[in-house]
Amino acid sequence: MSTVAQVMTKRPKSIGPKTSIASAAKTMRTARVGSLFVKKGKQLVGIVTDTDIVRRAVATGKPLGKFTVEKIMTTPICTIEGNRSVDDAQDMMGDLGVRHLAVTEGGAIMGVISVRDLLLFYKRYAQSKILTEVQYSEPKIMQD
Q1: Structural domain of residue 86, as residue ranges?
Q2: How many CB atoms lie within 10 A of CB 37?
Q3: How far apart are CA 130 and CA 114, in angstroms?
Q4: Are 72 and 56 in contact (CB under 8 A)?
């Protein structure tokens, strides 16, 4: 089974805590990602996701241009070691009710894994199994 480090998104994007929610949403759209780490100086202090923006800002009627991501970010950041299995990441996301996990190596964050990453992994895994079965299937013996 593949490890989280093999499936994760490397070099995750980050923003400052004083970034407006609207600006964070635009950054996510441009980068085509569903989460951004929130960085204060050199320290990661939280994560803001597309779900945070919808549930904690849009749905509550907050002015997206005036409120900052520090008001809606998730903290602490949920993490998983990069050497853990993809199944472990799936189980952890389900248990914690999150869709993004920071991937660590020796305590330092080196990437992020999302539900989307898991879906792509399992899709490729299933397709490889189907191709293997088709290529190596036993010939059928038929009687006249």
Answers
A1: 78-134
A2: 19
A3: 25
A4: yes
Count of domains for the chain = 2
Q: What is the pTM of this model?
A: 0.82
Per residue in 8-52, pLDDT tens? Answer: 999 899 999 999 999 999 999 999 999 999 999 989 999 999 999
**64 and 85 share a domain?**
no
> What contacts 95, CB < 8 A, 6 or more positions away?
none
Tokens for 86, please give them: 């993809």
CATH number, residue 53: 3.10.580.10
| 20 plus 70 within the same structural domain | yes
Distance between CA 49 and CA 113 in Å, rounded? 12
Verify that 83 and 73 share a domain, yes or no. no
What is the sign, positive or negative, of the torsion defined by CA atoms of 81, 42, 22, 33? negative
Q: Rounded to an integer, what distance in angstroms lies between the CA atom of residue 76 and that of residue 82? A: 18
